[in-house]
Every structure is written in structure tokens, then in C-alpha cells.
Design brief:
17% strand
């Protein structure tokens, strides 16, 4: 069986990470020839193939991304939502690529930011090959936004998009993008749409675009051998951290992204200081891209670790922390929670999206009231000062092994492929 995965790149964000983990596990545990076709390749994995490696294509690829963003600036409500909405006007027709032509199944992941336009997606549909689409956010079944929040216009076809567009109307950009998607999927044959969380799958099932389609839920996988509990003090010494401190860990590809909820974490940390709820020696670890000026406002000593691609080192950072915090206000099934749970690190997050499917309140962490910085601070305090940390750690690790192990998740995808090809 030959399966081609399609993702914008092999290095940015949770979709790229999950895509590689699924492909790797399918290749190792099942008789499947898996290749990942990307717009941009950074790592040397031989199962990842760039669409083209020429200077001309790289220049075109950059322009597609630039034009896509520039086009949306004509409609955006503010620059805060610039990367939260993808019109998918610009991209590349990859339907004639040898990997597409040879594949038994086309498996799409995240394809935005100038890789595939809606028209390019339609060309893949027109190949007639069975399609699996793993949804890492809501973009597939909305009028262009990656997360709709509490707006449920996608159930009727979008339009009047007040959250993202400066001039919402019944025939605005979100309505036009949705209509193009309806047209692109008009002749869709065999297909399965996979939500990484049950929450996302349920939303997809209620959308106008996918309500009569085959929609299921399969979580993202985690390598429980790589992300496993290690001796905390040893990890801290190796990372140059103080073995006598308490560490709060925050992880995001880019902390300033609207739905990552940074302001709620900042408010929660201010509450902890004001109410003297944490030990004076508590410090913050920030993994991912961050603005030093913004981070300087945190009322704790902060370690800006930047972006790190070494997964072994990332595992040690999780192991060095005492609690993982994820203040996201819109979220699917975050890889970061999975990574934390796999090393036995308790988590604190808001009760939103797929997070409640992962964090079991006071069993693997603390579920805070949505958008309540006060309850978020209460959760951090509970984990650090009041909980049975050993039990929390054991429960987290057990859940990761039972539900998110790579071989378990790959087996679910293998069964989806078999059913599609019957």
C-alpha cells in the first residue's frame, strides 16, 4: 500500500510534528510505503520529499505565501488575526506529482500558508483517489478561519464574519471561501475526515461541508519511548537550571499567536505573586518563539529557550519542569499536552476544545474555568503546593501510554486505509 501525506512543511507547528510521527509509525509497524510531500523541507528524513527543490520553485513558494497574506490584509479586522484566517487563493497544483500519481491513498494534513489553494485541493479530488484528511484545526470546514471560537456559522455556510473581517456581510470573504470549498468537494468520492479530538470531529460533523461525510476521531501520536520520565535533577543540571527551584513551563511555536492565550497566563502569574501563592524561587521556562520585551513583563525570572528542534532536549525540558501550563483559548488536541503527559508532567489548561479530553481534572492536572486567570492561577497553585504530584505523574504517563502511543494511533489509521481500499 502506498500513501502520500501532504503537509506545508516538516518543521513548523503541531501538524508537522504529528504528520511525521504518524508516517514514521505506519512505516515501522505496518506494510505501508509512506512519503510526506511538503512545500518546504528542512530536515533530512528520507521519507519527506519537497515538491520541487529548484530556486525558481522556492521563490514562487515564498511569493505564494506573501500574496496569500497580503490578500487577506485587505479584509482583516486587525493585524492580530492575520495568520488566523487563510483564504487559500494561492498555491501549487501538485496533482501531477509522481507521489500523487503512484499513491493508493492521498492523506492531507495542514496545507495552508501558500501551499495548496482551494482550486489545488479540487484538483486532488478530481484524481479520484481515496482521500484521508487529518484536521489539525477547523479550517477545512469553515470559511477560512482556523478556529471559529463560539461562532457556529460554519454550520450554515459562513458569512457575516465579525470575528475576523472588518466588513462582515452575508456575502463577505468567509462566504465566498466556503462556497469555493463546496464546489471543490462536489465530486468527492471515497474520503474519511479525521478530527484529532472528539470535540473537533463533532464540530466537523455539524458543518455544512462535512455533515454527510465520513468523519471520525483519532488522536495525534506521541513517541512514549522518547518522551518518558527522567530524573528531574539530572535534567536540570544538564540544562543549566537550579535543582532547588520550582519551574513552570509554557510551550508554543509562537507565544503571541492570538489563541495561545498569553495574556491570561501573564495575569495568572501576577495573581500568584500578588497573593504570594508560590515559592519565591519559582521561575518560568518559555519554549518557542517569544518577544523578550513582552516576556520582561512577567513577574518571575524567565528563561527564554527559543525554538528547539532536538526532541531529546525537549523531553528533558519537560522533565525539568514541575507543571506545564497551556492557557490557550482555542485549541484542538495539543501535542504539547501529550508530550507533558508522556513524561509524567501535570498540566493546567482551560476547559476548551479538546483539552478536557486530555487533562482529567485533579487526576492528570487541573482544568480551569474558561478565560479565568484567577482559576488558572488556582490550578498552578494546586499542582505545585497541594496535589499528590507522584499520583498525578503516574496517571499522566499511564494515559499517554494507553491512548496516544504511536503504534496504537498508527493502527487506527491503518484500519481507515483498509476500509477505504476495500
Amino acid at each position: 500500500m502506498k500513501v502520500v501525506f501532504i503537509n506545508t512543511d516538516d518543521y513548523l507547528g503541531g501538524a508537522a510534528i504529528a504528520c511525521k510521527r504518524i508516517a514514521k509509525s505506519l512505516g515501522e509497524n505496518f506494510d505501508i510505503d509512506v512519503k510526506i510531500l511538503v512545500k518546504e523541507k528542512k530536515f533530512n528524513d528520507n521519507f519527506i520529499v519537497p515538491y520541487k527543490d529548484s530556486f525558481f520553485y522556492k521563490w514562487k513558494s515564498f511569493l505564494d505565501f506573501a500574496f496569500e497574506r497580503a490578500y487577506f490584509t485587505l479584509f482583516e479586522k486587525s493585524k492580530d488575526v492575520r495568520f488566523a484566517f487563510s483564504p487559500a487563493n494561492f498555491g501549487t497544483d501538485i496533482s501531477k506529482h509522481p507521489l500523487i500519481q503512484e499513491a493508493d491513498i492521498i492523506h492531507l494534513h495542514f496545507v495552508n500558508f501558500g501551499f495548496l489553494s482551494v482550486t489545488d485541493i479540487q484538483k486532488l479530488v478530481e484524481t479520484g483517489k481515496p482521500i484521508v484528511w487529518t484536521m489539525h484545526d477547523m479550517w477545512l470546514f469553515t470559511g477560512g478561519c482556523h478556529h471559529s471560537g463560539f461562532d457556529e456559522s460554519y454550520m450554515t455556510g459562513c458569512g457575516t464574519c465579525e470575528q475576523y473581517l472588518k466588513n462582515p456581510s452575508g456575502n463577505d470573504l468567509s462566504k465566498k471561501v466556503y462556497d469555493r470549498k463546496i464546489e471543490a468537494f462536489k465530486n468527492l468520492g471515497k474520503a474519511v475526515f479525521v478530527g484529532c479530538s472528539q470535540w473537533l470531529a463533532n464540530r466537523a460533523k455539524n458543518s455544512l461541508l462535512l455533515k454527510n461525510r465520513n468523519v471520525t476521531s483519532i488522536p495525534n501520536p506521541i513517541d512514549t519511548r522518547l518522551f518518558q520520565p527522567l530524573e528531574k535533577e539530572a535534567c536540570r543540571r544538564e540544562l543549566g537550571l537550579d535543582t532547588g527551584k520550582q519551574y513552570i513551563l509554557f510551550v508554543a511555536m509562537k507565544a503571541s499567536v492570538l489563541w495561545k492565550g498569553w495574556t491570561y497566563l501573564q495575569q495568572a502569574l501576577e495573581i500568584l505573586i500578588f497573593e504570594n501563592k508560590v515559592d519565591y524561587g519559582t521561575e518560568i521556562l518559555i519554549l518557542g518563539e517569544s518577544d523578550p520585551e513582552v516576556m520582561s513583563l512577567i513577574p518571575f525570572k524567565t528563561h527564554l529557550l527559543g525554538r528547539i528542534n532536538d526532541t531529546g532536549k525537549i523531553s528533558k525540558i519537560y522533565n525539568a519542569a514541575d507543571v506545564f501550563v497551556i492557557p490557550s483559548i482555542m485549541e484542538n488536541l495539543p501535542n504539547t499536552i501529550m508530550e507533558a503527559m508522556s513524561v509524567g508532567l501535570p498540566c493546567v489548561g482551560f476547559e476548551i476544545g479538546g483539552i478536557p479530553e486530555m487533562i482529567e481534572h485533579k487526576k492528570t492536572g487541573y482544568l480551569a474555568e474558561y478565560k479565568s486567570a484567577e482559576d488558572f492561577a488556582r490550578g498552578i497553585t494546586w499542582v505545585l503546593n497541594e496535589s499528590d504530584k507522584k499520583k498525578l505523574s503516574e496517571n499522566s504517563r499511564k494515559k499517554a501510554e494507553e491512548q496516544y502511543a504511536e503504534k496504537t494511533v498508527a493502527g487506527k489509521y491503518f484500519r481507515v486505509y483498509e476500509e477505504l481500499l476495500q
